[in-house]
């Protein structure tokens, strides 16, 4: 395999790195047009439109939308029908994810000032959330768990899942995960029409307040377009891992960790930074040795040749500077002393510390969420969490004495902005 | 004035209410096309394009982008030049806003499990934030304060403000507020070209990580389009107030509070809910009496006639149900005992409790932010806050013992999803 080898000593390094990171996420005009039509049609015709698109795109016939709702018994049967080892693993993962996320829950707060004025914020869960789950090969039970659990922990009253089942083909693991995490209702619809149904509501499908979950380009476009009518999560790009090694690890562990990212998708990105050129050679050799043993070796090879790199850095400090520039979705600190580096990292979706912390443990069961900011968005966004299913309302209770102190300030500023009614509202509360 | 009077006893009430709340935020294709061109042009040509658009749209000539940066001395001079009362009011407001927002700061957290595995989240501020400030009449110093202060409290390293100055006309109050809150750099550019410059960076203007602040339809479209490359705040709709009264207040106070919302904009929405029909009559009479005294009476009348309503409800519980349906930006609980109602409110940007808490005190100086979710988005989003300028990275440090416990779970689930490299990464860490 032809693995890209770079060095920070190369004067062209930063330009080469930026080109390697660049990812064209520009929108496709044909998709945009189709999605705009689907949204308008579902908004206007509701269930009828959704049934029609489901017939056309998913080759699934139904006379009424109610026929496309899965009974709860069917979810439970899917769970009960899993092999015991899978069922137990799913339960153990769910318990750990729940326990971690419970620590993220925001609480209301309030304080009282000397004059009796009380200020604070009230935190409430969202009422109803829609969870989009892709059909086909990208439908992962772990993803159902990771998207639904924070909503459940937040206290969301109703969680509605949509999952396309082309020609009626259902994914038992996905339904089992939905049962385990406590999804309230499931409709077997997908695409932009499912996003539209959740965003606007139809006679059968209630309007939600936020839509989360991964999807293809049509789903991503639909989510962007309904943003504002409902909340949405980030639109995800290809998955990425950045490994910082000090050369102390087992090169096979590092090679496999790069593979684990690469096997997702040919556009996935796996990059290794190390100050030890000999270690980079050993990882390259392990990659060559282990690749033939991987069932998804073609995807892995395409991903690593197309978007991967082994980068020789001068030292670990420089590796951290590069990590902050990349702001990776996953960052492995595969070093003897990860705590010495972690304070230097400002931007990363998740930081995996030490040789035993493979990214795959985090994907499934360590506890933290696997829905993470991609494509450098860790510069400004966070892992999916309970806080994404809670919102705040400011609380303001000004006492009579407080109104005397604040009124003149507000009135002065309001007059300065030419907003007389604002000023008068403050002045009316002043004792004369 | 012709004020809409509604009653929840009317069988058509909910349909009438929904029609009144409806606000067409559909995008204008001509604006979309122009904005797409501006973004592409700035992305490609940088400073040259921004200078060109500034010349065309703002009638402002400059040979270089450096000439469009305001020196810090000029901000300070604007502040020093304010009348003493305004300067003091601005300082007092800033101090209160700062004090309130300091309580919003998120902290990193971590915990250790029995087998030594450590899990948590690390919280860091954004590196660099762009603040859009509109030119002309909608440029408010209070808005500079409210947008910039949470970023400063979060610890954002560099805060870059853009503000168009058509034909070179500057707003001294805005510059003074920028000085007071500690904005780092100010460029006198605006429109979609300013958003593009901040999102992509140019030779002179550094790329930011998030863009906040209000703007016209071009700015809103540009922000939506660069979302993902950078973070953005919510795109705001017209401002709204919902007042719940038990009939115990002074009808003139209520009338003026409705005016304060209405004076913003003809599309602003002011609605009063009250179970006491006589009180609604008294508020209507106060509106007629006080309207002629308002400098912005034409805007107020247009707003109240077009989008306002006095609504007779059966009781305060019903008023809370309607409030949750509206999910208003501003909610005034103008009642004797607001604490009895506040627990019933699930969706509101800010809740103003008691007769002395006019919304205008909150706009300027009570402490909480005045950037609030509009157009029913309080169902899923929050006031602008320090948390909007911080982000989280998951921390995962699995011990050797932890890897033995977690490895089999991860491997089982990974095999179930057909991701062999994920499974192998977990299995390699198992002791044999």
Automatic annotation (TrEMBL), chains A, B:
Its EC number is 1.1.1.23. One of its GO terms (biological process) is L-histidine biosynthetic process. SUPFAM superfamilies: ALDH-like. One of its GO terms (molecular function) is NAD binding. The keyword Amino-acid biosynthesis applies. Binds 1 zinc ion per subunit. Its cofactor is Zn(2+). It is an enzyme of class 1 (oxidoreductase). The keyword Glycosyltransferase does not apply. It catalyses: L-histidinol + 2 NAD(+) + H2O = L-histidine + 2 NADH + 3 H(+). Substrate binds at residues 239, 261, 264, 330, 363, 417, 422. The active site is at residues 329-330. Keywords: Amino-acid biosynthesis, Histidine biosynthesis, Metal-binding, NAD, Oxidoreductase, Zinc. Zn(2+) binds at residues 261, 264, 363, 422. Pathway: Amino-acid biosynthesis; L-histidine biosynthesis; L-histidine from 5-phospho-alpha-D-ribose 1-diphosphate: step 9/9. GO terms for cellular component: cytosol. NAD(+) binds at residues 132, 193, 216. Catalyzes the sequential NAD-dependent oxidations of L-histidinol to L-histidinaldehyde and then to L-histidine. Belongs to the histidinol dehydrogenase family. HAMAP family: HisD. This is Histidinol dehydrogenase. It comes from Sulfurisoma sediminicola. The gene is hisD.
């Amino acid at each position: 395999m032809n693995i890209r080898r770079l060095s920070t000593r190369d004067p062209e390094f930063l330009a080469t790195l930026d080109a390697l990171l660049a990812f064209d996420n520009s929108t496709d005009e044909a998709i945009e047009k189709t999605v705009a039509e689907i949204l308008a049609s579902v908004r206007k015709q509701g269930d009828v439109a959704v049934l029609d698109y489901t017939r056309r795109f998913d080759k699934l016939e139904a006379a009424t939308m109610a026929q496309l709702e899965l009974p709860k018994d069917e979810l439970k049967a899917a769970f009960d029908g899993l092999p015991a080892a899978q069922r137990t693993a799913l339960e153990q993962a769910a318990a750990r994810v729940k326990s971690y996320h419970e620590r993220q829950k925001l609480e209301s707060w309030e304080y009282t000032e000397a004059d009796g004025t009380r200020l604070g914020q009230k935190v409430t869960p969202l009422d109803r959330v829609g969870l989009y789950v892709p059909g086909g090969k990208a439908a992962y039970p772990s993803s159902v768990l990771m998207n639904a659990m924070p909503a459940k922990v937040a206290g969301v009253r109703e969680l509605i899942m949509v999952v396309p089942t082309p020609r009626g083909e259902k994914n038992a693991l996905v339904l089992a995960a939905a049962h385990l995490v406590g999804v309230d209702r499931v409709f077997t619809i997908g695409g932009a029409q499912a996003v539209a149904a959740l965003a606007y509501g139809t006679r059968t499908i209630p309007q939600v307040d936020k839509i989360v979950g991964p999807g293809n380009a049509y789903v991503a476009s639909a989510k962007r377009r309904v943003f504002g009518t409902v909340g949405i999560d980030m639109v995800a790009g290809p998955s990425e891992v950045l490994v910082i090694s000090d050369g102390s690890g087992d090169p096979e562990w590092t090679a496999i960790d790069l593979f684990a990212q690469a096997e997702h998708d040919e556009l996935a990105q796996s990059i290794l930074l190390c100050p030890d050129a000999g270690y980079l050679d050993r990882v390259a050799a392990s990659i060559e040795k282990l690749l033939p043993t991987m069932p998804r070796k073609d995807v892995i090879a395409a991903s690593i040749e197309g978007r991967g790199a082994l980068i020789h850095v001068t030292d670990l400090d420089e590796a951290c500077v590069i990590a902050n520039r990349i702001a990776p979705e996953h960052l492995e600190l595969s070093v003897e002393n990860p705590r010495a580096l972690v304070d230097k990292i400002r931007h990363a979706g998740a930081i995996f510390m030490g040789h035993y912390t493979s990214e795959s443990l985090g994907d499934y069961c360590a506890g933290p969420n696997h829905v993470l900011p991609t494509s450098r968005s860790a510069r400004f966004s966070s892992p999916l969490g309970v806080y994404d299913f809670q919102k705040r309302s400011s609380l303001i209770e000004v006492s009579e004495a407080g109104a005397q102190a604040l009124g003149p300030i507000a009135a002065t500023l309001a007059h300065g902005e030419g907003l007389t009614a604002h000023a008068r509202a403050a002045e009316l509360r002043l004792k004369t």
